[in-house]
Amino acid sequence: MQHTFRFLLGLALAAPLFADTFVGDVHVNADTTTTPITISSPSPELQDLALRAFGAHGRYKVVAGGAAFGLAFAPAGANQVSVTITKGGKATVESDVGGRTLRAEGSPGSVVASQTFAGSDMRNALLKAADFAVTKTSGLKGFFAGKLAFLSDKTGKTEIYTADLFFGDILRWTSEGKQIVSPRWSPDGTRIIFTSYRTSFPDIYVLELNNRRISLYASFKGTNSGGRFSPNGQQVAMVLSGEGNPEIYVGTPQGRQIHRLTNDQFVEASPAWSPDGSRLIFTCDAAGGPQLYVMAATGGAMSRLPTDVSRYCAEPDWSAGDPNKIVFTARVGSGYQVAVYDMATRASKIVTHAPTDAIEPMWMADGRHVICGFRAANTSALYLIDTESGKATRLSPTGLGSASSATYLAP
């Protein structure tokens, strides 16, 4: 059982046995329910970012003409962007930039909505405006303006970074020089909890972003890993092995009142919260191999999810956008792919077709897209996956080195 736990903990650490290189997008089974749109802007920078965002969204297809909607984005002041949505055709927008009036021409169409958004910078304002356009044209919740925390080895050591979804505003937050795994946001975006091997053994730490202070959260005998904040930020779930077996524990955000929820001879790992915070989903080898189990956040009996898609199911994440859906890593053949289990239909499906391992999936805000890592023997990159069409779009730039273990903070 200890071997199984080390294997589960090490899944994010050990390189797989594939030597494939991978760049760009992966297209599988073109989605027949895409919405054709046009995008225009008097600002090349805004247009490029809007094209990238909607080009990655599985619901949309950017076209030159014959669109269902036209989306026009324009600078509207300091760190502000306006969006005009027309039904059919292309919108026409004007904007004053640097004392010059810039005009993006378009064919006429009836205006559906128009609104201006302020952001932390122009990129953030554009992404907020794009999220508004997504909701107005599809009914889906937008996720473009969310933030990522992730790991990168750009400096030669694996450290924690943050960025927007399309890897603008990149910041490095640690200088550990030690092995780090599983960074996870607090729901208010002020802290990141993570596991580090600072003392040669895995312990749990918390990074406070307002002052860059790193404090020790859990350092008990044995292994301490998998820290994850509850949706309301009032609890932390984790895996501790100090009492002899890796078990699920819950404590306060300050590392107090830590108490055990599971108590068995099996190995538990990777706890994640339900959107309402009432339940936990985690990996357990009670069935002879890693599978997904659910239990009340207060403890009690645990029940296995009948994923029935693989003998190895791990790294679950519970969707806030669609609480019926669980995303997880499944062993497929000699590698790993991302799968989704739907509790409403009690059915699973493999949603990635990566040329290498696809691991560590995390939901976006809409309950349709996830971010995960595509990892080859000597490199890894972060991809956005549309779980309905199978479309995969690379997000992390090559200049960032190997990027992995992304955690998403909804806007």
Describe the protein's architecture and organization.
- With 411 residues, this protein is mainly beta.
- It folds into two domains: 2-27 and 144-409, Neuraminidase; 35-138.
- It is 9% helix and 44% strand.
- The protein has three helices and 32 strands.
- The chain has helices at 2-10, 44-56, 122-138; strands at residues 25-26, 35-40, 60-62, 69-75, 80-87, 93-97, 100-104, 110-118, 147-152, 159-164, 171-172, 180-185, 191-196, 203-208, 213-218, 224-229, 236-240, 247-251, 259-260, 268-273, 279-284, 291-296, 302-304, 313-318, 325-332, 335-342, 347-350, 357-363, 369-375, 380-386, 392-394, 403-409.
- The strands form eight sheets. A five-stranded antiparallel β-sheet has the order 1-31-30-29-28, with no helix packed on it. A five-stranded mixed β-sheet has the order 3-2-4-5-8, with helices on one face. The chain has a four-stranded antiparallel β-sheet with strand order 11-10-9-32, with no helix packed on it.
- β26 and β27 form a beta hairpin.
- α2 (44-56) packs across α3.
- The longest helix is centred in the N-terminal third of the chain and has 17 residues, at 122-138.
- Residues 1-7, 10-31 and 94-107 have low confidence and may be disordered.
